Amino acid sequence: MKTAVYTMLALAIASLGSGCVNLERSRDIGNPNVSGRTLALQVCSSCHGVDGNSTSPAFPKLAGQQEAYLVAQLKFFRGHNRIDPAGSEYMWGITRKLTDEQIEGLARYFSQQKDAPNVAGDPATVAAGKAIFENGIPDKGVAACAGCHGAMGMGKDTFPRLAGQHANYMMKQLHILSETNQRPAGAMMKPLVHGLTSADLVAVTTYLQGVSPN
Fold first, then answer.
1. Which tens digits make up the pLDDT trace of 18-74?
2. Nearest-angstrom CA–CA distance, 139 and 146
3. Separation of alpha carbons 136 and 127, rounded Å
4. Fewest 10 Å CB contacts: which of 31, 66, 177, 204?
5. How crowded is residue 8: how many other Cβ atoms within 10 Å of its Cβ?
6. Nearest to 104 by CA among 127, 131, 71, 78
7. What is the per-residue burial (b if ≥16 Cβ within 10 Å, else e) of 55-84?
8. How many CA atoms, within 13 angstroms, populate the side-chain half-sphere of residue 190?
9. Cα gap 200→207, rounded to integer Å
10. What does the alpha-carbon distance between residue 113 and residue 95 come to, in Å, rounded to a whole number?
């Protein structure tokens, strides 16, 4: 009799426990049954915003970013192939147990969000940045950024969207690409960035921050 009671009690407790599991609101990044979209809303939104429009330039805007680029970067973090300090500090742990399906779901979700425009910068600085982005600086061997990132900075495939990104974040990444080997996949950027002065970098990133073609 007692055994039957204990069995019924155990089943009831198990039933209650299973009823409390809500995969649509789960923050369990180690659970492969939690979708990428759910992780985007419940975990990634803390830094990047629910719609991918982060308010702090410490965290990149993901809204409207190229899906293929996001997939590649998440896999780089998961495999410890991207070691820039701020990125690895946050992202290695988060991506460690992500499945390919979750990564694809995360990338799909953020790529479909609408970019919220940033404030435009000083007109003269914006004009100088636009000229560099569209034409490069031939005398210094600097190619036009638009050649890979698109005429409006929207990116293509694994070339990231830069339009609307935080200027401070882009500046930090350009220094990492220029001065370190912490982002091996971006090695092709090193010689290009070396040809830009500090004023050039400010101009380009200021211009791109204000572009929002969606």
1. 444 688 889 999 899 999 999 999 999 999 999 999 999 999 999 999 999 999 999
2. 17
3. 13
4. 31
5. 10
6. 71
7. eebebbbbbbbbbbbbbbbbbbbbeeebbb
8. 10
9. 11
10. 21
- The residue to which tokens 């609101």 are assigned: 25
CA R_g for the chain: 22
Number of Cβ atoms within 10 Å of the Cβ of 180: 12
Residues 211 and 203: their CA atoms lie apart, in Å, by 13
Instruction: Give the global pTM.
Output: 0.88
The 8 Å CB, 24+ separation contacts for 25-31 are 29/94, 29/97, 29/98, 30/97
SS3 per-residue string spanning the chain: CHHHHHHHHHHHHHHHHHHHCCHHHCCCCCCCCCCHHHHHHHHHHHHHCCCCCCCCCCCCCCCCCCHHHHHHHHHHHHCCCCCCHHHHHHHHHHHCCCCHHHHHHHHHHHHCCCCCCCCCCCHHHHHHHHHHHHHCEHHHCECCCHHHHCCCCCCECCECCCCCCCHHHHHHHHHHHHHCCCCHHHCCHHHHHHCCCHHHHHHHHHHHHCCCCC
- Give the pLDDT confidence of 113-134 residue by residue, as tens digits: 999 988 889 999 999 999 999 9
Q: What single letter denotes the amino acid at residue 114?
A: K
Sequence-separated (6 or more) residues with CB below 8 Å from residue 198: none
